[in-house]
Amino acid sequence: MKQTARQIADLTGGQLNGDPEIVLESIASLKNAGPRDLTYAEAKFRSEAERSTAGCVISTSAIAGHTSIVVKNPKLAFTQAAAALIAQAHDEPAIHPTAVIGAACSIGANTRIGAGCVIGKDVTMGADCVLYPRVVIYDGVTIGNRVIIHAGAVIGADGFGYVKDGERYVQFPQVGRVVIEDDVEIGANTTVDRGSLETTIIRRGVKIDNLVQVAHNVEIGEHTVIAAQTGISGSSKIGAHSIIGGQVGIGESANLDAHTILGGQAGVLNNKHVRGGEVLWGTPARPLKEFLEQQAHLARLPRWMDELKRKLGFRGNTDS
Amino acid sequence: MKQTARQIADLTGGQLNGDPEIVLESIASLKNAGPRDLTYAEAKFRSEAERSTAGCVISTSAIAGHTSIVVKNPKLAFTQAAAALIAQAHDEPAIHPTAVIGAACSIGANTRIGAGCVIGKDVTMGADCVLYPRVVIYDGVTIGNRVIIHAGAVIGADGFGYVKDGERYVQFPQVGRVVIEDDVEIGANTTVDRGSLETTIIRRGVKIDNLVQVAHNVEIGEHTVIAAQTGISGSSKIGAHSIIGGQVGIGESANLDAHTILGGQAGVLNNKHVRGGEVLWGTPARPLKEFLEQQAHLARLPRWMDELKRKLGFRGNTDS
Amino acid sequence: MKQTARQIADLTGGQLNGDPEIVLESIASLKNAGPRDLTYAEAKFRSEAERSTAGCVISTSAIAGHTSIVVKNPKLAFTQAAAALIAQAHDEPAIHPTAVIGAACSIGANTRIGAGCVIGKDVTMGADCVLYPRVVIYDGVTIGNRVIIHAGAVIGADGFGYVKDGERYVQFPQVGRVVIEDDVEIGANTTVDRGSLETTIIRRGVKIDNLVQVAHNVEIGEHTVIAAQTGISGSSKIGAHSIIGGQVGIGESANLDAHTILGGQAGVLNNKHVRGGEVLWGTPARPLKEFLEQQAHLARLPRWMDELKRKLGFRGNTDS
Prior knowledge:
homotrimer, alpha/beta, Udp-n-acetylmuramoylalanyl-d-glutamate--2,6- Diaminopimelate Ligase, Chain: A, domain 1, UDP N-Acetylglucosamine Acyltransferase, domain 1, ten-stranded mixed beta sheet
């Protein structure tokens, strides 16, 4: 939907400089934006902004030779304006005819369900959700409002819990539920297992990237973000406002306080309690500063060992 | 299906205390169980069991004030009883009308195939299997009895094998098969590739979690369990009764003896032979004790280096 | 399609020894090949080749007692011959009736689209592509010729980019495109995100294994191979002819020169520039030689610390 510069200034609460009637039709990066595009520039890219051919630039100060909108946080204002500019009218039906919807489901207003989605029985879904094609929701899952689930995600499969019976493994009952609160986003081919006897809970505002595994009985606190290919083992609790890097592994029944930050590929041990918003890295995960210090010393170790050998006759890997 | 306490005692071979006619309708955790629920309590949760409102408790001794069933392994007995209590009558057809079944397939009695599954040609599947929605089985795959495959899993895709032709890669033929034996369970969005010229084999009783990668020509021995996001490279052999943690990587043509245990995120090198049921961790994977000892010494290294510097004038990362 | 030994010799440019009229119907490994099978043997497997029952062996020299074809690179010649021998006539329609194709798509000649695939709007696809069942292509994706995409892959989902608005995360616009060039192969359940404002590009000849994550704005150079479960974060550039092991993690805006080799589970930091075709391993990734040297010294560290304690009275983990 086309917007004038004035409309965008109003929408973002920014101060307009230049032509208020210029019409913008789309968005683009600073590098690629043309006369019909809105773009944005952080303060440090001011000279690039001046040289750009964008129709309008959102920045922290007026951009010479351009229609611009001055705000405190250009990236956020651009994001808000983009939502209006690229809003699409949908011509297809809200629920694609190839989707399979089970008995006793409740689906809220304006919720869109893509081609090939399979929704089990007794599923409750709020308003304004988007399920991209081929999402599978198992029986009994509860989903809030404005939830976005990307293609291929599987919500509510059985947890991975077994009891040994002699040499065989027998599946422990996996009959719990999944609750996904408002404004959650779930990436493509991500899997969220149902609880075994309890409930797997993803609190409001959580953002989960592609190919993430969320096991049974896990609880993820609100406004936490989890990057691709991370795995969270059964019964772990991730505190609110945490930031979990990609390919992180979190052991069973771990407990991360709110505001925890985990670097990519970090590994948190089973039953570990990560306190008070620490920044951790490595496997086993340890405070970032400690990890970096250890790595730096490890890098120097070969030379120190050489020095010990030369000066003091140490023999290292021989028995002594 | 409702069961009386007496029926559950009979089914589990346990000793009944209290009211044999009490009717149980479902299962729940010790914390949540109500008067119509069966639950279980390990010995250490005896006092919680006494305070619970469960209709019947399976435990290692009688629970005061409750109808209880005494067995040696409460969790196993509960699992067995739960299977009877939560058994569901299916009202849908065994093969969902949206499933696509290729030519010349053989599908055993009581096997259920969910919505949107795609089964290739010449696929043989035994009895009492469950394929959840959107499973894909490529041509020529053989599946035993009582196999459960969760949504989105892909069985029999081409292996990842190429030959260099100048600067280009040409696919080496991937025309082998996949054999999945009885009682195997495969998690959501897991991938099991066909053999190149040989066969990828998953032996009976193997349990595989979500998002696991099993490459071409791999053989997984019976009753082995593999946690989420683990990857097993081409032509590796995993011995029977092994336990493979989450996010483990196993290199090409590795060979793990039976009863191997690998900690989460461990990495086994190409061609490595892991002998005699070792417990390994780290990358490259090494015996657990060794890994932990190295990590402990690494944590102390900064202080030791400081001591070497102060007492002996070592210079560490400078050339000497 | 049956071939005579003579036809295969012609096709591979090899020198024929033995019976030119022998008819071959299929391919098999050296161990399993029978009288109707073509196989190949590297020079070191010459005696196995002599004992085999294969109808014809491709090798580096004539195989006594067998019809054989002599070439310089037996594996490559076998791969080329196999393509002719196992070529299949397709009896199904090129686009499966259960596939969903959006408006304004262009699909080239001989491109096959499997059951349950969902193709969005404005998708361009070249000739001779194969999409296995249940692939999802989002709107606006461009795909070249001879591209193969395995089941469950998702191409063009939104990138994982957010802007903080107070305590909430708001999605940064994800309106860029995906371009996949000729001869690319993409594994089962792999995900390739669209660009945010730019384009995610996979150059010609790239081969990507299963369960790989390719984030927004990534560019992968031609003829690079990427093993299973690797994750490439936003805006990273992977140079041409690189070899990326399994479960590798590449941070945001990393830049790998052409001919880079990364060992399995390696982790490349955000913004890291890997120069000139290095071989790296570990997290953070470092030159292979350095990594191995550090690991070797780490393994000896416990004994050296013991020696320091005994000979010099060092106290290690106490304060000093």
